[in-house]
Fold this protein.
Amino acid sequence: MASTGSIAGPVQSLINEFSKLPTIGPKTAARLVFYLLNRPRNEAQSLSEAILAVKDKVRLCTLCFSLTEHEPCDICTDERRDRTTLCVVAEAKDIYAIERTGAYRGRYHVLGGLISPMDGIGPAQLRVKELIERVGAEDPAEVILATNPNAEGEATALYLSRLITPSGTSVTRLAYGLPIGGDLDYADEITLTKALEGRRAL
Amino acid sequence: MASTGSIAGPVQSLINEFSKLPTIGPKTAARLVFYLLNRPRNEAQSLSEAILAVKDKVRLCTLCFSLTEHEPCDICTDERRDRTTLCVVAEAKDIYAIERTGAYRGRYHVLGGLISPMDGIGPAQLRVKELIERVGAEDPAEVILATNPNAEGEATALYLSRLITPSGTSVTRLAYGLPIGGDLDYADEITLTKALEGRRAL
């Protein structure tokens, strides 16, 4: 818009930069900029430095391909973690979701995506070879396939299951069912079907 | 939470920094961090630098108290702008909202807030003295009070109107009424009352 010439250059630049981020539109971006303008400089500096640090100090763990400051990562080197269970996830962020539950004490393997022929992503584009090598070398008692509950996640889990099962390792998948705190009335048909199929004796 | 020890330090730091911003909760913050991790370093650097630039290069215009890189600001020095009209706003961001309409060609005065006795903000905490001095020195034909349509905005407009009117300057207020594209059915009672009171002959 022509009238934005009246907006101070650096203000408009930061609005543009924030707007590139997911979930942030131009109005939210403007709100963030005016918020920062009203805060002490050291707060803005902390944010600015944290953004560069995440690019400069974070790398992939050579063992599990999670994000880490040190190699191998804290989880891979933690002697208290159960070495007989390996949890396979699509992305490093899925690890944080699982860690927040506190319900898993084993180790992880990050695939770096999911099989998606539509997007040209096959097993060769993922860390499948590395997973198979790890399963062979570490011989875990159980491999948990914790891929997303959607078409790509299912296809990837099925593919990996067929590769791993012959080695004798137990392969499991996260349970499907009603989300806790949810309302049966509002559950979609597929979730409800899965909840019925997966029903357990009390 | 104890389990976040497994999150790489710089990732957690940036999640914390993003979470301090308004409208951004921990989940959105994490999403932004993983987005940046997947982008080239120069994109993160642009954002990082733009944040510092907004703190280091933006100052207040000494005339209208808007945000600017140069003093006086682009609007105050623009010879094509109408010097007979002065639009009074609470915050610099309100200028950008009005500029986006392209419907106003005069100049601005930023109060730096609104009168709010509950928050201990009176005329002395705002740039009211500077406004009265400008009106005296520049003698505009019209002062538009473009404060928010709420209690503080109304009180501030009423207060300023009483100060300025005796000088013979015409004082106006933004119109209240139905928002364009809105539905009469959904308008609140106060807005609808204002729309009726402000009805105009066709």
